[in-house]
Amino acid sequence: MPDLMSVVTTLAMIVVVFGAVLLHVAYLTYFERKVLGHMQDRLGPMEVGYHGLLQPIADGLKLFFKEDIIPTGANKIIFTVAPIISLVPALIAFAVIPFSDRGPIADINIAILYILALSSIGAYGILLGGWASNSKYSLLGGLRSAAQVISYELALGMSLVGVLLLSGSLSLAAIAQGQAGGFWHWYAFAFPAPQFVAFVIYLLSAIAETNRLPFDLPEAESELVAGFFTEYSGMRFAFFFLAEYANMILVSCVGAILFLGGWQAPFDFLPSTGWWGVFWFLPKVYFLLFLFFWIRATLPRLRYDQLMRLGWKIMIPLALANILITSFLAFVTR
Amino acid sequence: MTTAQRDDEQGSFGYILHEPESGATTEVVTESVDAEERQPLFRSEDLLLNMGPQHPATHGVLRVVLELEGEKIIKATPYLGYLHRGTEKLAEGKTYNQVIPLTDRLDYVCAMANNYAYVRAVERLLGITVPERAEYVRTIVSEMQRIIGHLFWLGTQALDIGAMTVFFWTFRERELLLDLFEALCGARLTVSYFRVGGVDPQGDLTPEVIAKLRTFLAAFPAKLEEYEGLLSENRIWLGRTKNIAVISAEDAVNFGLTGPTLRGSGVNYDIRKAEPYGVYDRVEWEVPVGSHGDTYDRYWVRMQEMRQSARILSQCLDRLPEGPILADIPGVTYPKREKVMTDMESLIHHFKVACYGFETPPGEVYCATETPKGELGFYLVSDGTNRPHRMHIRAPSFVNMGAFDYMAKGYLIADIVTIFGTYDIVMGECDR
Amino acid sequence: METIASSVEYLSRYYPIVVFGLLAAAFGLGTLLISYFVQPREDNAEKLSPYECGSEPVSDARMPFPVRYYVIAMLFVIFDIEVIFLYPWAIVFDRIGLIGFMEMVIFIALFVLAFVYAWRKGALEWE
Lengths: 334, 432, 127
Known about the structure:
By secondary structure, chain A is mainly alpha-helical. Chain A has helices at residues 4-39, 55-64, 76-92, 111-132, 136-167, 172-177, 196-209, 221-224, 234-259, 275-298, 304-332. Chain A has two domains: 1-65; 69-333, no CATH class. The two termini of chain A are 39 Å apart. By secondary structure, chain B is mostly helical. Chain B has helices spanning 3-13, 26-32, 87-91, 96-104, 111-126, 132-161, 164-185, 207-231, 235-241, 249-254, 260-263, 271-274, 295-319, 337-342, 344-355, 396-401, 404-408, 413-423, 427-431, and strands spanning 47-51, 63-69, 72-79, 194-195, 198-199, 363-371, 374-382, 388-394. Chain C folds into two domains: 1-41; 62-127, Methane Monooxygenase Hydroxylase, Chain G, domain 1. Chain C is built from five helices and no strands. Chain C has helices at residues 2-12, 15-38, 45-48, 70-91, 93-120. The longest helix of chain C is centred in the C-terminal third of the chain and has 28 residues, at 93-120. Chain C is flat and about 70 Å long. The chains are: A mainly alpha, B mainly alpha, C mainly alpha. Chains B and C meet through strand 1 and strand 2 of B and loops of C.
């Protein structure tokens, strides 16, 4: 049984991580608006605070005090619970993310399965929210979310197999540990089988998982107005929003750990213990987040039959080939 | 427009809402869809979805009722009239000059082109010609307007398909041209720049404006390539536009499509070539023509048209002659401003033209002009008074909407917004 | 006793997740609750009606709805399970040698066979 001291530390860490995630989510919206703004020859938020730094707080307060409408004919319970179903898995997945070599809050040996499971639950929130709203736009958005899950999730699952094969563990802490010794040991580039293709497949699936452009079909605003959250307002809307951004941070963290060495320093003569780990980890996460925004600023939206075709006819065969080649290379070089 | 008013007016607009008890049932569906297309084996009810008037991608207040099977469109019925202001009727109570501001509000993103179309009709009715320089200035501003209109279209079409950056970039260039309009006539959108017999004499093309326009033209091709770099080589863009909303040349002609929508299908018909006006027959340019009649070809046609407009513009600037920009036709055009300020006769003359306008010989005239959207025609009937007896506007957006159901059938909801965009529809013109 | 103790030890690693989950749920419900008391509430029938782009809703949103990708959805369920089989294999890959490698190649070959069959049969197409 864990002793009292470790329990207290763990509880403190939970509170810290929880707060940090929420803060990052809030400022990720600011970061996104600034990045998009500058890519589009404008400034982004500038009014609230210095260079708009208080904008996320203003947005949060506005949503907090906004009337929370439940449309007629909506299923009240599901309508209320759906945003929470989306939000809670997105947040508690952070319990298994190792931010440094001290490991995650909960060091479980099946961390990847845990995260895959939670990310699937998040889609239920969208589906239920879309159905419960009793609006056709919401319904179509929810159904698209289901179509999206079956498009990317197989490729997502397969893209991870190569990394698991090289690391021999499902624990994120162990996977990060296995990439020590410089960036050429990170699994995206590592001998004997660089997982670069798997990394790209993972990124595409991650974008689809978080409903971001070019795969933002469930909420495609020019087609379905706002998709599954058309009827949502106030805090319930904010929860879907928080869940989406928390998921973005989550998939970026997982991507950084699986393919970019997690908290490992890029060169072996640099320290990567303790706070240094966080120091190396955050730029990788933010680089991936920046990729999300960059792609959003660049690409148009796919149609959902095109997404399905991309998932099934391009990403799955590629991921399968990657598994075969990786296992072959790992076998012969052993 | 509140819902209550809408309800009162339903009859007069001639549309019938599908009642909940009669709509959305299998009987209605079997009526509206060919029997062989449907399989009666599985039970599926078609979803009736209102798209518009309050929808982010309907370019204003277009309303389309979609009959859906899943996300596939079985029937798309546009309901027009949400922006109807009775422009044609209003014109009957106004003198010919007073109608010009009304035409600004037809295709409100391309007001210059509407002005041009209207004053040409009036001039044809009067049988007057305009000075040489005025012809050049008119061609210049209407080609600037074509670039503005196409930039606006490109931005919104790209935004509808999800490429948001193109939208901001096109608006950046559009802004430069709007600034020039502001320098010319003080207004940016509703310009009312044209006059019967020329253009606003206070708004001549000054050397500064010409220099700015030349700077713009020098930079513009690079900007176009920037947009094309984001779109033309982008597989997602190609996937979203190629083979979407295909219409054959024959069907396009039969539906009466005009403008880039027609030329995308491979019909080489441009009024600027077929029936030249302005100085279009004096400059070198080509009519871009597509071949497949899909959304991508219409996109390509408009991109090339912007290049051709830039070509026309630089030639016009090179050859711009000196001279007046408003004809001096007593009783029709305003006298010179300096004279109005000093000369009593001219003041009275000015007062008369401003308040009473001018009388036109009895008769009727139809005059078609190539606007960015297509053939904008004004049909004027004159009974010899100072007001049009009847004015009819052949609005390209309105006629193009006739083919909407035909072009949308069988595609997915996601394609509907592409199809809205590919017409370059502006409801001010469509509903008039 | 030994096994019980070790499984208690094992499960105790999960308690932070439970605490985290409770915290997240409390955050969600608590925020909703507080927000409920501070927000204005001015309802009317028009405001509460589902969004249909400004028109009166023409029919109920909850109706049988043809999902054109149901074959793909069924394939997804099957293949997803097969992918899960790859995970334990990948973990112990170092320890199972040539036999394990060949077994998995055969398994993936079967997978590919099924996949190609579905593809050629047109199950991945929509119409």
